[in-house]
Amino acid sequence: MSIRFLSRLLVSSLGVLMALPAVAQTVASGPLKVEAAWIRASVPGQAGTAAFMRLTATEPMTLVGLVTPAAGVAEVHEMKLEGDVMRMRAIPSLALPAGRAVELKPGGYHLMLMDLKSPLKVDTRVPLTLVLRDAKGTERRVDLQVPVALRTPGAAGHAGEAGHGAHGAGHKH
Description:
By secondary structure, the protein is mainly beta. The protein has one helix at residues 3-19; strands at 27-29, 32-40, 48-57, 61-67, 71-82, 85-90, 94-96, 102-104, 110-116, 125-134, 139-149. The chain is built from one helix and eleven strands, in the order αβββββββββββ. Strands 1, 2, 3, 4, 5, 6, 7, 8, 9, 10 and 11 form an eleven-stranded mixed β-sheet that branches. The longest helix is centred in the N-terminal third of the chain and has 17 residues, at 3-19.
């Protein structure tokens, strides 16, 4: 092999490796699989944002909370249409039935990060711990490093995301 070929191969391999952190990863931690996790980027002065992912439990579990050093308050939320008004509220828990994926997505269930300590910038990662309870009442924790993005990684944009980006200082529950 020529030096020129090896140089090109090395450069192209580095390009692929550098792109990997921006891709949402799949994390399997015991009885929970976490896929396509991401947090919406924020700007200076923005007090809150949301995190999204797909959770699949191998046994019945309940998501009872989350913890992150990036925010003063972190809660499980739901958005739903009541009459003609879309309402959002914190919920105490979210059931994760065995073998069925539960989507945390814009316009539905999601994780709210409020009282942000600093802006969350695109192409960074935020530590986030999911707090779960199994059918026996045992608490389990799943530690994640969630990428920050402007929209769903790998998506050109979803219509459902447009109304969910305004989780700032004026956000009402």
